[in-house]
Amino acid sequence: MAAPSMKDVAARAGVSLGTVSNVLNRPDMVAERTRKRVVDAIAELGFVRNESARQLRGGTSRTLAYVVLDARNPFFTDVAAGAQQVADAAGLALYLCDGGEDRARQAMYLDLLEQQRVEGILITPVDADDPRIAALAGRGTPVVVVDRGAGPDRCSVSVDDVLGGDLAVSHLLDAGHRRIAFVGGPRSIGQVADRITGAQQALARADAEPLTVLETQRLDVAEGRRAGERLAGLPTSRRPTAAFCANDMLALGLLQQAVRLGLRVPEDLAIVGYDDIEFAAAAAVPLTSVAQPRQLLGRTAAELMLAEARHAMGHVHEQRVFEPELVVRDSTRLRPLGGVA
Amino acid sequence: MAAPSMKDVAARAGVSLGTVSNVLNRPDMVAERTRKRVVDAIAELGFVRNESARQLRGGTSRTLAYVVLDARNPFFTDVAAGAQQVADAAGLALYLCDGGEDRARQAMYLDLLEQQRVEGILITPVDADDPRIAALAGRGTPVVVVDRGAGPDRCSVSVDDVLGGDLAVSHLLDAGHRRIAFVGGPRSIGQVADRITGAQQALARADAEPLTVLETQRLDVAEGRRAGERLAGLPTSRRPTAAFCANDMLALGLLQQAVRLGLRVPEDLAIVGYDDIEFAAAAAVPLTSVAQPRQLLGRTAAELMLAEARHAMGHVHEQRVFEPELVVRDSTRLRPLGGVA
DNA sequence: AGCCCACTTTGGAACGTTTCACAACGGCCC
DNA sequence: GGGCCGTTGTGAAACGTTCCAAAGTGGGCT
Asked: Tell me: the pLDDT tens digits for A108-128?
């Protein structure tokens, strides 16, 4: 009843354990007749290699993982798709682990993955300074931080979020907005903090009111709706005329709720999102957004990880930084009125 | 340089191997002083448990996996979130594996997961009849098929896709449509086939033209756009007045492209999607869609899997079927004209 | 002083592989 | 007919844990 092992296969085929191993690992150094007998025995018994034992002996796992900030955000699954391409090509399996914006769960995954001796870990951390990450790397597991810059003792791939925030808000300023809100949080997430910094930097160059920050608990659609309610509730005189959201999930929620509560977008409220996920272009009002090279991010991250895993010694950590790009759509564009077809 | 093992810890703490094991697994049966010494040694050496060895000895992996049809489809990440809840509660780790609508990749993951002796596998298969799935289950790995019905020798959770297709098309028929297209594919995917069946079943009850099937290669936004082009290219006299899409990704792509090419939705083309993903409600024209209880699906799947894993013997396979629900929004609703604000 | 007991600690077997040095077996050539 | 070789197959060690039976320690009681 217990799962058959190589020993059982050997017994059944009337050969030694070593021979079974040879059939599995160096099939052409065993005579055709024996090979056949062993292969048959394997099939008859339904033998399945025990990866734990292999790994224990051999030391390597052919597996890598991407610990994602939130698997329900399409931005991250797009990044993951990029990493998957590289993993496929290298013959590695990629596991996606959903951190769910939850420190504890992320920590749990990191511990487990290290214990499992994966080849390497890509991670978009809840908290980039989590000492666990440094510890992991220190003990020899290749770690690449994704979508956040890292210090010189780690590889990272990121997009300049300060620049992104600046681009977004500069665009709004150019369009004449002077009272601008930022929607996003918690601030402890690095991307959020950087995007705020960028926004403020743009504001500082202009003659505008200071940034109103609507801090959220999470970066999802529901929180965006909640922000929409908060904004719509303000008296017109105090309501920001534009909102810059920390990501597209928030922006879509905000957009949806704003429209539902009777605000016109962009006339009453202009909206800029971040990430330019596929759904941004298809939104009620197509969403202006700061685009990041998602797949490239994922591919690069996986490549850096592989490089580190292969070279082990003498590996030089790289911090790749890409540039974001503003994609302007209707959510910030004043159109001639009544323009349906 | 090699990763330190329990043996190293034991040496450093001046105790035996067994004691280190006790500290790790039954801390309160070792004296406080010794425990402290061992804990310190662990910290000093940066010892990390080797999960392979543990598993080899102990036999169990505390891990489960969900092999998803396509991780970029928010429907599946929502299902996964449901499964994650249950996994968290049970103290298991959940790995997401992206099948990418690719048979070979899915097969690769199944093999690997079995070799890894995961506690169980949830899977939304590219091909529900893949013999590999039966084989897996036959050898004792608990398998739950998600979003597809299964035979009596397997657990499954699904939503009645035939009914869903019927609901969607009945709704269109009620709205007066007589020339209806189905967008989706490939047909080898069970959900697609069932939804077509449902659609045809509704049509058979009405006096309408047979279903025009626009078969796609994949179920993503890009293919939806392509379908939009195809539809818009048809002469008005032959163009369907309504499209039922196999999922919301397709529907959103179709919607986007149709609007871009000057078709009004729903006046020139009504659209019904499937899954009611979060972005459907936020679309350019809020999307009518067939909703499935996504999280519930995931939770139930994980629970069935756990039940099977725990009971091993005497487990009775269950096939849970849920009912879909039509959510009507603007993409099929003829409104009074000019209805802004 | 001698016993018993409870509490700690120890040593070694076992889990299922891979790897490696070496044995067995023909066959060939001189 | 003996020595050699190449081809196949074998056996045992090792990987890092967990678990268990058994040994060691000391204190309290008689």
From this structure: 999 999 999 999 999 999 998
